[in-house]
Amino acid sequence: MALELRQQLKLTQKLVMTQQLRQAIKLLQLNRLELSDALQAEIEQNPALEEDLSLPETLETSFSLSSTIEDKSIPMEAEITESVKVSDGLAEINWEDYANNFDSNFSFAHETPPADAPSQFDFISEKPGLSAYLHWQLAHSNLDAAEWAIAQFIVGNLNRYGFLEVDLERVMAETECSSDDAEYILEVIQELDPPGIGARNVSESLYLQLERLGKGKSLAAEIVLHHLPLLETRNYKALAKETGRKKPELERAIHYIIAELTPFPGLPYATDTTNYVVPDVYVRKVDDEYVIQLNDEDIPRLKLSSLYQDMLKKENNLAKESRQYIQDKLKNADWFIKSLYQRQRTIYKVMESILRFQYDFFERGSAYLKPLILKDVADDIEMHESTVSRVTSNKYVHTPQGIYELKYFFSTAIAREGEDDMAAESIKTLIRRMILEEDKDNPLSDNTISEKLAEENIKIARRTVAKYREQLKILPVKHRRHAK
After folding, report:
1. Which of 163, 164, 261 shows the shortest CA–CA distance to 221?
2. Around Cβ 134, how many Cβ atoms within 10 Å?
3. What are phi and psi of 419, to 5 degrees?
4. Are 189 and 154 in contact (CB under 8 A)?
5. 443 upstream amide cis, omega within 30 of 0
6. Contacts of 79 (CB under 8 A, 6+ apart)
7. Cα torsion 293, 294, 300, 301: sign
8. pLDDT value of residue 111
């Protein structure tokens, strides 16, 4: 059989992911903080994209998708606010008060600063944490170079709770020290503040705190050293039997442990920052009707650069490369604005569909959440399921029932005989309500909760109840029982 080369024409259709389409998809799945960063980055990179700082003449010219219409009969702010005069400005600032002056001649003796005046330490970019606090104390411990290296290794292996995450064998291997040196440095660190630091577990941490308080041989010390599991499960009857002490003595010791000691001594020095949720959408009830409003507060109004547009229109002597550069930048800027608008429009349509499907939730709460999957919303708004998935990821909505992630409204269905299917989130709400209303002296077990749900025609296994309870971060029955 002979081999030969041939040319053949073939017409095919295929989906090509252009750079603009990739950008639109990327904007769609960004959360609010990431979107703000992406906008600033695009404005910095593309000179043809500008932030429109002028007030829009009409609602249509502004970049907003709010479902409410502004009343144009209301006068502008400039018409109802008095003009600010030059004399209304801030008082003259004494910049010497803010100077980062650490000269040896610097003294506060000549002047007492106001109580609310910022100090130099208010401008430190990073808040000192547990490691910095311990290093500051160790600097006054008169350690030699070898001991300082051991101490640095131990402090570096403390977690955010203040517990040592490595054993002494690892310390000896990494620092090439003897067992006596490792134990000595660990004791030095355990004598630092906060009390209980450098322990290997909660039991040792509590005991170190009791030793610092002079109660190393008390009943409380015996409990935290040898009977902490009984204290965790609140099995006070077994605790009295193991210690041979009477109930009043145990109650005093347990009260002292709870009131005076902390199980995680390093936690108050943690430098973790709190990230607050900012809703992307607001759903408000106005005159018996729900109104959807997008949160556009942090999204600037964008426009094409008028300077670059005028250059294309007026400058006929532009070089070919310069004209092509300006055209490309204007095209990219125009596409970016359209992609941003499309993102907001898609979020609005998805939220509108969710409101239709989950109307009972907005009216009466999470117990009335209905089963819903991404395909239901995708078919409703005539979009692809993957688009709905991107829209609902890391997006939050403020509702009359609280703030929820959009993913929260999608839940699997639990079949019920002779009745409509029920959402898994609704069952979690019922479980939470049962546990809140239970008798604390005789709390409900997972099996009992399963039986109670079965009485309401909700048949789920005990292990499913346990899974839902863990997702709700509710402790098992032995940890919820009150002491008798």
Report:
1. 261
2. 25
3. -135, 170
4. yes
5. no
6. none
7. negative
8. 53
From residue 470, give the alpha-carbon distance in Å to each of 58, 86, 232, 319, 411: 52, 62, 18, 67, 17
Residue for token digits 């749900």?
Answer: 453
Q: Which residue has the tokens 């949160």?
A: 295
Instruction: Identify whether the C-beta of residue 450 lies closer than 8 Å to the C-beta of residue 477.
Output: no
Burial class (CB in 10 A: 0-12, 13-18, 19+), 354: buried
Whole-angstrom Cα distance, residue 303 to residue 51?
Answer: 6
Note the pLDDT of residue 398: 92
Q: Which residues lie closer than 8 Å to 180 by C-beta, 6 or more apart?
A: none
What tokens were used for 195? 């009390």
CB proximity list for 28: less than 8 A, separation 6 or greater: 342, 343, 346, 387, 390, 391
Distance CA 423, CA 108 (A): 66
- Which residue positions in the chain have pLDDT lower than 70? 1-2, 16-18, 20, 54-127, 273, 315, 416-421, 482-484
Name all domains of the chain by residue range, CATH numbers in brackets.
130-269 (no CATH), 281-409 (no CATH), 413-480 (1.10.10.60)
Judge contact between 294 and 344, C-beta under 8 A. yes
The model carries a pTM of: 0.59
Give 283's strand partners: 292
- Give the alpha-carbon dihedral of 181, 186, 188, 192, to 10 degrees: 170
Q: What integer pLDDT is reported at residue 328 of this predicted model?
A: 87
Cα→Cα distances 206→71, 200, 270, Å:
63, 11, 19
